[in-house]
Amino acid sequence: MDAFFAIPPGDVAELRRREEVIRELKEIEGRLRSLSKDPYPSQWLIDHAKQDGGVFNLLEDLREAIFHYQMVRRTRIDDQAFKLVNPAESDILGKLRYARDAEYRHGDRGNCLRGTRRTILDEIEFWTRDPRRPPVYWLNGLAGTGKSTIAQTIAERTFADGQLGASFFCSRDFEDRRNIRFIFPTIAVQLARRRAEFRSIFVPLVRSDPDIIHESLYGQMDKLLVQPLLKSAISTVIVIDALDECEDDEPTSAILSVLGRFVNQIPKVKFFVTGRPEPRIRHGFRLPLLAKATDVFELHEVEPDQIMSDMQLFYKHNCSEIKSRHHGLDDWPAEEQLNQLCERAAGLFIYAMATVRFINQNSKNPKKQLDRLIQSQESGFEGRTKLKANTTLDSLYMSILREAFSDDDPEDDLKLRSVLGAVILAANPLSPSAIAALLDFDPGDVFPLLSSVNSLLVLSKIDQPVRPFHKSFPDFIIDPDRCTNPRFRVHPPDQHTELLVGCLKLMNRRLERNMCGLPDGVTNAEVKDLKQRTERHVCRALEYACRSWHKHLKDTRPFQKLEITRVLHRFLEEKFLFWLEVLSVLGATREAVDALEATEKWLDVSRTLDLTRDYFRFVVAFFSVINTSAPHIYVSALPLSPRMSIVRELYKQYACPSAKIVQGLQDLWNPVYANRGFKRVAAWSPCNRFIAVASRPARATTSATIEILDAATLERLNIFNSPQALGDQRLGFSPDGRTLIQFDPEKFIRWDLQTGVPVSAVFSGRLVLARQSSFSFAYSTDGKTLAVSGASSQSLTTIDTYDLLSGTYTRSYHDPEARIVAPIWTHAECLRFVTVKPGSITMWEAPFLSVHTPAMIQSFPTPDEITDIEEAAQSKCGDFLFLPAFSQLAFKTQDTIFIWDAKDSRFLLKFVPIQNPWPHQGSSFSSDGRFFSHVDLYENIYVWKRSPTDYILHQVLPLHSTKPLLSPNGESIIAIARAALHLWHTRYHVHLPPREPKDEDGFDFLLEFSPNEVLAASVRFMGDTVTILDLQSGNPRLTIDTGMEVMCLGVTASTVAVAGGGKIINWNLPAENCANAMASVDDSVHTTVLACSNLAYSAERSISPDLTHIAVTERGNPYNLHIHSMSTGKRLVGTKVPDTLQWVILGGREVWCMDGKDYVRGWKIIQDGGSGIAGLEPLETTKCPPQVSPWQSRCGYEVTHDGWVLSPTQKRLLWLPQHWRELGEHTTWSGRILGLRHCELPEVVIIEFLE
């Protein structure tokens, strides 16, 4: 242990710290020795007690010296503990997303002045040491009462005596410190760095599950804190300050909700929490689980005498320090002045600190500064402390600003307002040098201007962030009712405009290609010194401009829109990709999505709007690769952009492709972005920002996974596991977006989206949630009752209500003569719904608690010319959809879709699709009625847009989906198609021709390359048209109508062969200079009948590269592998294979069967001396060799599971977009040529790699 305290050679600072501690201890020792020699020590105590703090000062001296010694010792232990973290563990901890500056040792917070806050500090210290006290302590108080100062003191003291495990000081000024999702990871990382026993459990946990950071708050606390704390059995204190400054939309603090669920499981851990008594914080501490485990202390209820005493001590101490630096202040301040200052502070320590800072300004006379403040109005301080924060602080702020705003130079007034506006309105704190760069001021001017109001700011150095000393100052200076002098007041639209234009101009000046000098093809994570490169090349002002320019856009001055648009257009046209680079290396790519969405909403119709929309598609389509690798913006994203995209045209000179797209590059943006997996049901959040998706984990039958996705990028934001298996289920958000209901025929589960914890379960067992049942739900306004409409077990449409607090069914409503139409909705305090029966559409209203006795609100006639509506109204399918805001009814008859305006008794839409439309589960309105979508039986999705008179067809999308769902604002649609979630945007006009499905739709393509890699042959499985593509030019050389359903094909430089049914057909290929020739079955040169009569009954089949043999696995138990001659059709040899090995690949001298993953079996082909095959000899390997692997080329190229194509030297050559990517068995390699052939592609994609 002595090694911990050894002073390293040359550590002068450490030596001086220790000498100071020893000096203090010796001084106390001398005073105690003199006391021991005193024959009358009691008299000594009496005499010193009469002195000002005599005995108390001695004890405080002793305590302070011990504290300093403990701090020195503990700091040394901490430093050594950090050094003991091995590089591998340190690397894992460093990659976690956490708030690096949230610990108590960062920032400029002061601790409590010696002698002040003694009662509360002693009380908290006793709590930390007493295991019988509750595990949570809440220190609450109004703004300015000193909570953070106390928290800083407690953090320092618990650190000094070895109790502190971690601390998190929240701050609304910093993005990572106001994000509640950073709290638990930050605490966990601090504990891991400080405590080896915690680290030994925590690091393996993170290594095995790197996505743990994306868990819900419940999952974070459970896995990052509770499990390691329980297993390590450590005792510690955790400090969380200013919890009220975190962004949290929950009515009850999400952090406290989770803490309440776990705190009793870790009794050795104590949580000290401070925060203002805002409703969500109060409600959190009143939760039953947390209320019993919490001690509470209210700072604003402290006795006035105690506050007055602390205030006097504070002022005396600081005035004494000021006097020591100035001459002529011997009798200053007067006792009367001190009393006035204390009364004026009205219990607000923030006022006292700001006052001292004002008096102590450099180059100012302290006496005159104090005299000015004494002129202010009287404070209300009667009996117990009365906090008149605005009145008290406003007077102080006005006094300080009068001093700062000089009467001499109006230009200085303008500059000072601009600089203060930047401090107040910046999205994140800026340094004086950054403010100068953004506002284009002389750097030497900004710091002096800020220094003139130094007492209101936290201002240290020119390159350090400056921010308001207290959050009350920004509120004051932008409020015309409080800051009544217009000279001082900051006008937000003016300052937002100035900051926006400054950001854009700075980016236009500074941004350039590859600013950080990253190597080609690497991911950001692979650049070990990325942080250092970024700090060196991206200054703080430029970082702020890149991340935050759009946050000022909506609050700008309207009359300057033209000027702003001009600067913005230049930025988008010249610097867009360079901006994405910077965001990528900063890990802030999501800011690009927000910026482009904000810009699109702000702009009028213009060329700049066209740019913005194109760029938005670019960022969303390639979000994953942009976020992962800045260099691949030019290597992957730009080369893979559509041929006619604006971004490709403007920036084509910067493209650095490592691959040539021979076939498959689209001309226009694909409107669909897919998120794959076993997706079953989805739902939009009311705010349009999130999508909930339920999916079935692979091989799971009794559980489901629920993901919360970003509605713009489909990136996962949260995930939690449900014990309910996916069957006939629905998902639905609560109106406030805070909870998600998982509807199941037997049970409804309500999930808290912030914590990821089930809030309640409702056992129903009454509704049938089949795909075609009419389904809808509505909450009561108090959130206590849920109404659900669906088909009952008797196949009647009913409305059931449930008490969410007790989780029980309450009552029902149904009308045997009419059909309830989706949706049901809440109006005021009541539930409303619509029924349809022959001749009438009726709107009803009922209180939630008596829904079985509804009252009729309005009735409309049904259209006379539609006779089929009577039959439809009695059907079991949900053929109706009502739009409450506009009294519009969408319905279908046998072959037509209608939208009926019930109020005006007229049709807004009559449409006959290619085929009968699906029932209303394939329909949806946007909540504002602007858009309506429907799907026909051919799975074409139609989108109409509302005009003043009717609905006009806006989009047609052949998506293979029966469940399109419009977002509430109508700007996006999601749909589940082939177990994948698809997203596209209605604001982009896309009109694709409706499709009429063919028999082969849904099957993968077949693709083969000639051995010399000059030609490619492709056909849809079971299709009849084969295309021969010239790989050099990318143009078709020959198209063959085979006249049969093709199930297998092969190609050489001169011949193509196809197999299907029970035969094989061969064609000779035309000369190389022939382009796009046509051929049919009549042009074939040879037809062979196979010994197996029908290939359709085989599992898999493959033709040898030289077109001499065909291998077939035939279904059975076990399967049989047979090899046939292509010339005679005769079966030559065979063997048995397991039924899991169905995928067969025939090489020149080997044949392989694969299971689609990693397991294979191979046989060597034994020749019979001629051209025949004598037998098969098993090979020993069970690992997939490169020559037959769908993931690897025989030349060493490789496709990774996350879509990267690697060269033989493991260089990242290309990132495959999501809509090109599928499971590995849908790829075909030939040397350095890759083919992608899964069923959702419109054509085979062929890529030739150039390196």
From TrEMBL:
It comes from Thelephora terrestris. Keywords: Repeat. It holds the Pfam family NPHP3_N. This is NACHT domain-containing protein. SUPFAM superfamilies: P-loop containing nucleoside triphosphate hydrolases, Quinoprotein alcohol dehydrogenase-like. PROSITE patterns: NACHT. Residues 135-277 form the NACHT domain.
